[in-house]
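FAQ: What does a ligand-bound record look like?

Like this one, built around zinc ion:
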Amino acid sequence: MPSNPVAETVASLMPRAKQELTELVAYKSVADFDQFPRSESEGAARWVADALRAEGFQDVALLDTPDGTQSVYGFLPGPAGAKTVLLYAHYDVQPPLDEAGWVTPPFELTERDGRWYGRGSADCKGGLIMHLLALRALKADGGVPVNVKVIAEGSEEQGTGGLERYAEEHPELLTADTIVIGDAGNFRVGVPTVTTALRGMTLLRVRVDTLEGNLHSGQFGGAAPDALGALIRVLDSLRAEDGSTTVDGLTGEEHWDGLQYDEDRFRQDAKVLDGVGLIGSGTVADRIWARPAVTVLGIDCPPVVGATPSVQAGARALISLRVPPGVDAAQATKLLQAHVEAHTPWGARVTTEQIGQGQAFRADTTSPAYAAMADAMAVAYDGAEMQYAGQGGSIPLCNTLASLYPQAEILLIGLSEPEAQIHAVNESVSPEELERLAVAEALFLRNYAAV
Ligand SMILES: [Zn+2]
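The answer part, i.e. the structure of the complex:
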């Protein structure tokens, strides 16, 4: 780490950061109130609100979002005429899953082998601490040069969309020139990374019917149209020989021009069995960040145990289609529906039902905000060049913010690098990453203010 006043302040604040993260991780703030008491989430929300007030934030409020949870908002005014930056994180967490699988208790922040273990330590309570550290470092060295809004969501992991709907109903609240989403992560520890693309997705339920009822396969099999067989044909039509996704009319030729994902590394990360090949074409980055990807999530058909010698009269499947940036999710849904209908054999009856959809996101990496972040990352990471990565999943709030504030640039950074094992047992955060990213965020705010 270079020595400059911001870096020195952040380094000196790390013990306090650890104490604060310990307090925050102790709240079992899973926003599923059938499983975890609401008071745990409320306690975490109060903790965030108190922390913002202590930093001099004004208008600090617990916002009741339409999904019955609370987001925490605060505003820290900067110099007159300064730009406004919105800092996002969420204080809710994934459930701990298999508690017995945790080496140390999930809600007790525990240091082990140079990492801090605990649910939410990286995703995304650590992101909140990162924001606080960055602001404190600036205050100690001349002040925060921009207006800062903080929004801490209370139900991100539930996907209930409370903050999205609240923001749509109160569009003035989160207006900003630039938005920093502190809920992504570096490609690897020590590789400064901004996530510049998120795939969107669509979910389609498909039902195929052929007969009024199941038939004996000995008596009727061979001529009776088999609905399960028809469905299997439909699902198979969604892939080329090499496993690439093939939806009629949907291009799968795009290239990812940012960071590349080494194939052997991907095999290790994905724990692919020896001798089994990857699917798709192009580089790994092309496949997971720039091209569509279909996955069959479920099939309704008789389980093997108890199966009878029958020709099936009906069968259902749930299909997920990940949609790359540049493709409209609604258009992709229409193409997928048309493909399924066109590839249903034997005149079988087919019905499709769309049950979910999210748009893809792509950042404008030529913007001044990106240049300001690249310079900041280079200082915080000892000269390392900032990398552009994609993320296979979607963050619906990104699309909401992008459509509410089309002028605002959105930067996704954070502590969820692969070793953090977010959403799994034994989640952890790297304190070095927390320190470097807090320095980077502080320097970004300063660079950006000067643009
Ligand atoms: Zn998260």
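Follow-up question: can I read anything off the structure? Yes, for example: Residues 5-198+360-450 form a domain with the Aminopeptidase fold (CATH 3.40.630.10).
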